[in-house]
Design brief:
alpha+beta, 19 strands, single chain, Diaminopimelate Epimerase, Chain A, domain 1
Length: 291
């Protein structure tokens, strides 16, 4: 074992302990996959990341660092809040990007990040699977969420690594009132979004600091788990909602409200079609771990 630099970062918030925590081991060199997975399980957090030098191919294509992303029980090819939190930790530890953007290498390939004031934002990776869900899936999800089928006003595959199925309900209030049935939704990754105010062809009208409320449910060690704030889901939701005319090209989504968190996810589509998913991060714990 050796001492390795470590940070625990809260992502998608400017207030410590109100976002989604992430464990970051800043030097994962020499660790086996089994050791990374074991430490991730031990942290009891939704994700843990290990920073490494880029591969030769990654470096040749501009990567500044490589990250391996783990959740309890498995490795992930991509996840949003670990991407932002890892980049925050890398920069805070003295990392200097080689170009205009920070370039992260991970399981889905290269992901670009940019700095936007006190926030970081990543370019949403392309969807692996899109299009409407099967009607049988929609009816199952409605039953599992405890809503009428007609309350699901739109739905789509939102698969960008995590296998999200996205559904839109009539309102943010309806999203916050959900009490999902873990037995019915077993094995499914479900993202739920609801607008604040009235939705028209260009998205919600009216709305204060946030335009949508989002919740994310996925299988966990004890049945269904709710994620406080989810970058991968919000990235995929943005691609779906903006593309379908259900959201404006720039909006802010709230997530975590039902868990007493205050997550804020900033979405923006550029003129070239790139969708950026951003949020603030704060370091809550730093030191060294023995691994």
């Amino acid at each position: 074992m050796q001492q390795r630099p470590f940070k625990q970062v809260d992502v998608f918030t400017t207030t410590p302990y109100r976002g989604n925590p992430l464990a970051v081991v800043l030097d994962g060199s020499g660790l086996s996959t089994e050791a990374m997975q074991h430490f991730t399980n031990w942290t009891n957090l939704s994700e843990c990341t290990f920073l490494l030098p880029p591969t030769d191919e990654g470096r040749a294509n501009g990567a500044d660092y490589r990250v391996r992303i783990f959740c309890p029980g498995r490795e992930l090819p991509f996840a949003g809040h670990p991407t932002l939190g890892s980049c925050h930790a890398w920069l805070e530890a003295g990392g200097v990007p080689r170009g205009e953007h920070v370039v992260q290498e991970c399981g889905v390939g290269l992901v670009k990040l940019r700095r936007d004031g006190d926030r970081l934002a990543f370019a949403a990776p392309p969807l692996i699977k899109s299009g409407q869900l099967e009607e049988a899936d929609v009816q199952l999800i409605a039953r599992g969420l405890g809503v009428a089928r007609d309350d699901i006003t739109a739905h789509a595959w939102c698969d960008n690594g995590p296998n999200w199925r996205g559904v839109m309900l009539r309102s943010a209030e309806q999203v916050l009132a959900l009490k999902p049935d873990a037995a019915v939704l077993a094995g499914l990754d479900i993202g739920v979004v609801g607008p604040r105010g009235k939705v028209g062809v260009v998205g919600p009208q009216d709305t204060g600091d946030t335009q949508f409320e989002v919740r994310a449910f996925f299988p966990g060690n004890n049945g269904l788990t709710e994620d406080p704030v989810t970058g991968s889901l919000n990235a995929a939701l943005a691609q779906w909602l903006i593309g379908a005319g259900l959201a404006p090209e720039r909006y802010v989504a709230a997530q975590g409200t039902a868990l007493a968190r205050e997550g804020r996810v900033h979405i923006q589509r550029d003129a070239d079609g790139t969708i950026w998913v951003g949020g603030a991060s704060v370091t809550c714990v730093e030191g060294r771990v023995r691994l």
